[in-house]
Amino acid sequence: MLQTRFTKLVGVEHPIVQGGMQWVGRAELVAAVASAGALGFITALTQPTPEDLTKEIARCRDLTDKPFGVNLTILPAIKPPPYAEYRAAIIESGIKVVETAGNKPQEHVDEFKKHGVKIVHKCTSVRHALSAERMGVDAISIDGFECAGHPGEDDTPGLILIPAAANKVKIPMIASGGFADARGLVAALALGADGINMGTRFMATQESPIHQLIKERIVANDERETELIFRTMRNTSRVAKNAISTKVVAMEKEGAKFEDIRELVAGARGKMVYATGNSDEGIWSAGQVQGLIQDIPTCAELVSRIVREAEAIIRNRLDGMIVQSKAQAAE
């Protein structure tokens, strides 16, 4: 068993996290991740109302007796969701771990802390990680350029970002973006992280609440099957490469504004991808890690495989590379 500062902080067996994913972070997936000994997060804003979130948390509790959390993503919007009401639903439901992401969450951090909730804040740069640490969050999820969704605007891949953050961040930190297997977990631990966050990998599991054809598309795709949209608007998002994302990138190169592509990138269309199995229906998030995903296991099979193989890499492959010099042997 691999025990780290993060597993001790949040009370789970394994240093593996399934972070918040719009339309995907539902009770059936989160409960399966939790039952496997990892930490799963229900995505708050996938639920239409705070009342629906309360029901989804209760549904997850019916499916598992292991700890799980809720993701609350704070993003700029013309008509913002009632964040305070979602926050209250999380607290009143007795959730003890929250993943925050997006704009400065100080108000939410303060309120969650009052109720003894542990906060994992997701960020894409060392400066934002340090800012969140000053705000009082309990752990950081540091997101490299390889990730699905929003990688920030610095384009710093995990191989640099994780150790750069580990040099400065004092609280526990999980590595996010590009993780799918035991090799990634061992690498993240070696780079200074206390665990890994996986999104795309957990999408391609049996309990993931998305269409089987999309799971099969993730398995079929390689590491080149993503596009970076909204680059010209400095709101970059990594999504699966399909007819729509390719069109959006082409339109941006021709100077298109958000209003010009609004209908193409509408969230309702992306939601339909997961419902219908038509991968060209809308924009949907996926990381470069698709190139490392070759099957659709249960969450229990996936987590146990990663932990088992990680222990084998550490004990056998890495330990076997340490050879005593003649001087050491003489001592």
TrEMBL record:
Q: Show the Pfam families listed in the entry.
A: NMO
Record keywords: Flavoprotein, FMN, Monooxygenase, Oxidoreductase
Please tell me whether the keyword Oxidoreductase is annotated for this protein.
Answer: yes
Q: Which SUPFAM superfamilies match?
A: Inosine monophosphate dehydrogenase (IMPDH)
Q: Which InterPro entries does the UniProt record give?
A: Aldolase_TIM, NMO
What GO molecular function terms would the record report?
A: nitronate monooxygenase activity
* UniProt entry tagged with the keyword Cytoplasm: no
Designated name of the protein: Nitronate monooxygenase
